[in-house]
Design brief:
With 432 residues, the chain is an alpha+beta fold. Helix content is 40%, strand content 20%. The chain has helices at 16-33, 47-54, 58-61, 82-92, 133-149, 165-181, 188-196, 198-201, 207-213, 225-240, 286-289, 304-314, 335-346, 360-370, 380-385, 414-430, and strands at 37-38, 44-46, 66-68, 74-77, 98-107, 119-128, 155-161, 246-247, 259-267, 276-282, 297-303, 326-330, 351-353, 374-378, 387-392, 407-410. Strands 1-5-6-11-10-9-7-8 form an eight-stranded mixed sheet, sandwiched between helices. It has a five-stranded mixed sheet with strand order 13-12-14-15-16, with helices on both faces. α5 runs parallel beside α10. The longest helix has 18 residues, at 16-33. The two termini are 53 Å apart. It binds adenosine monophosphate. Adenosine monophosphate binds at residues 80, 108, 110, 115-117, 120, 122, 254, 276-279, 301, 303, 305-306.
Length: 432
Amino acid sequence: MSLQAPRGTRDILAPDSARLRALVETFAGAAELAGYGQVVSPMFEQIEVFRRVGEATDIVSKEMYEFRDPGDRHLALRPELTASVARAFVQHRPPLPWKAWYEGPQFRYEKPQAGRFRQFNQVGAELFGSDDPQADVEVIALAWRFCTGLGLRELRLVVNSLGDRADREAYLAALAAYFERRADELSAQGRETLGRNPLRLLDSKRPEDLAVVAGAPVIDDCWSEAAADHFAAVLAGLESLGIPFQRNPRLVRGLDYYRRTAFELASDALDGAQDAVGGGGRYDGLVADLGGPEVPGVGFALGVDRLLLACDAEGSFPAPSGAADVFVVDVTGGGEATLLAEELRGAGIRVERAFDGRSMKAQMKAADRSGARWALLIGSDELAGGQVSLRRMRAHGATATGESVQRRIPRRDITAELACLLATEAAEGSTL
Ligand code: AMP
């Protein structure tokens, strides 16, 4: 049997890998503009880190990749990063407010399908140390600004408040009582979910459950005054920034640590079942659950793979060009191409070349395929005369600089000459 990447995982090759990296870099730029610094934490943690924050959730109870290492430590590949970042906060106690962004793969043993993988990438940000509703607004605005900056237009921001811990417990009891009353109308799986966590039923997509969920109590009736005021301030903040949102009183999110604000970003350009590109909310209490002080926090995570699918669907955020600037064609054996390529790369010029002593024709074909705008030719005449021939590639035509024909340039001048040409082209391109 041929070896393959494990089910639910993928190899990401160029140019998709370059696009993924560009997306992460764009996120890093947006987060750092807002004062968030990157945190890089381990891909696996003591299993307790996740158990303490989400024992009753599918993500933690059913979908974790857990294992024992040779030292008999019970570990899990991270299924999400907020718990890891909160653990890192408790361990290092950076000064408050602590604003951190992250990126990287997460692991969940889910049923693979379009837009759902067992290893997937997220970017996210967390703000620890403030319970100001303006912090919630800042965090949501960062997610919104980044996603719209990718060119996504068919985005929907859905918001809710889960109230404080006591509000949430009261709501849970009201929900449980309601669903118990109508248990025989639920699907068999729905009844099983009810036994574990009635909140999770609100996420059910099964038609029988949907009908029952439609009549379920809403959280608003359980909010404390402080939680209601907080939510009103968050919504007012979003309005003042002109960020459009919808209220969904049944949005609960997949992890149990959320308090007060919860939000989700969905793309109408994606298939309905997997349309969530990200989400987050406030998790006052999470740091304490992990053995730290009572420090509030708010943050979000976005699914990079889904964001890119949404970009595909909207025709935005194309892969960056992998094309070379220059292709060195050397028909004197290849050693000159090595020297010249290294010299030009040292000057920051993207250079490709061929190997295996191929013919002029074959090398010119490879040059075409590389997308290079310029070819540098080294034949025996050039070599003898200490020169290189510079040629504009046919596919790229002539430019305003008038460089359409082949001309010889002294070998020692070529790096400076090319750097100058490329800079002129870049300037022309930027004024188009
Ligand atoms: P969550 O941590 O569950 O709130 O997920 C945040 C975002 O990560 C989701 O909205 C998705 O975009 C993405 N995501 C979650 N699980 C997966 C998965 N299995 N495959 C791909 N993306 C995922």
